[in-house]
Design goal:
Blueprint (H helix, E strand, L loop, with lengths): L23 E10 L2 E9 L11 E6 L3 E5 L4 E3 L3 H4 L1 H12 L7 H35 L2 E5 L3 H4 L5 H7 L1 H15 L2 E5 L22 E3 L6 E3 H12 L25
Parallel strand pairs: 3-6, 6-7
Antiparallel strand pairs: 1-2, 3-4, 4-5, 8-9
Helix pairs in contact: 2-3, 3-6
């Protein structure tokens, strides 16, 4: 008879691969989410540089619009959490009406609530993946603000900040830029909305959405001007021939750029 110290044969677990695994597998993580099992592979592989691009862009993220690009593109804020809030409320009430934490009815209600949250999270991630990919494919230099998202999410706009998911979007943008050999620059966010492209200070309240500079006469949308200020702070220089080591730190429907 085999003893307890004898090695067991490896169990074979079938998985449905969404895409081929590229590179050398380093770790495998199995997790359960919303009643489903997922396998996450951590791999090591070489970068995939894109063709050179001399185009540069400044990105101003916000709440009225998800982001405004310095080329004039205004990306609508999908507000996934607010859109699904009614279904989440119903699912939460269903769980609250089942006080017995060991009952099958409560367990099923919890899974439905988890699925509702997972749907919102997946919609946000899909939107941000597609958007970040389009930006990285097009621009050689990408300038964004080095925001303290954690601090912004602790104020009165916490729900809107969490719903926008700026940290996740900047994370996607960072690793995609590094893999593609693009240059991503994080600039000081202080005063970007209170400064004109000419350098003059133009004080605005949060509800003021239009920029009018008394010094140079520039009149344009507040976020659009901020995106140019962000780009100017990054130096407005072209990509250095798709450098492999970038200066970065480590959906609704996709937006079509003109």
């Amino acid at each position: 008879m085999p003893t307890s110290c004898e090695p067991r044969a490896l169990d074979i677990v079938k998985v449905k691969l969404h895409r081929p695994v590229e590179g050398t597998i380093k770790t495998v993580t199995i997790k359960r989410q919303a009643g489903k099992w997922f396998v996450c592979f951590s791999v090591e592989r070489s970068t995939s540089p894109l063709p050179e691009s001399s185009d540069a862009v400044g990105i101003d993220v916000g709440l009225t619009s998800f982001a405004v690009l310095s080329d004039g593109t205004d990306i609508e804020n999908p507000r996934w959490y607010r859109a699904g809030q009614a279904k989440l409320r119903v699912a939460q009430r269903r769980v609250a009406r089942r006080p017995n934490k060991r009952s099958n009815r409560r367990r099923k209600a919890v899974v439905l609530l988890q699925k509702a949250h997972a749907r919102t999270s997946n919609q946000r991630a899909d939107f941000q993946h597609k958007l970040s990919r389009k930006i990285v494919n097009r621009f050689g230099l990408i300038a964004v603000e080095d925001l303290n998202v954690k601090g912004l999410a602790s104020g009165m706009l916490a729900k809107s900040v969490h719903d926008a998911g700026w940290s996740q979007f900047l994370s996607y943008l960072t690793y995609k830029a590094e893999d593609a050999g693009r240059e991503l620059v994080m600039v000081d966010p202080r005063g970007t909305s209170q400064t004109c492209t000419c350098g003059a200070r133009v004080t605005k309240r949060l509800q003021d959405r239009w920029h009018s500079c008394p010094a140079c006469g520039l009149s344009a949308g507040r976020d659009y001007v901020s995106s140019h200020v962000i780009l100017n702070r990054a130096g407005n220089r072209p990509s250095v021939a798709n450098v492999e080591v970038s200066n970065s730190r480590v959906g609704r429907e996709a937006v079509c750029f003109s």
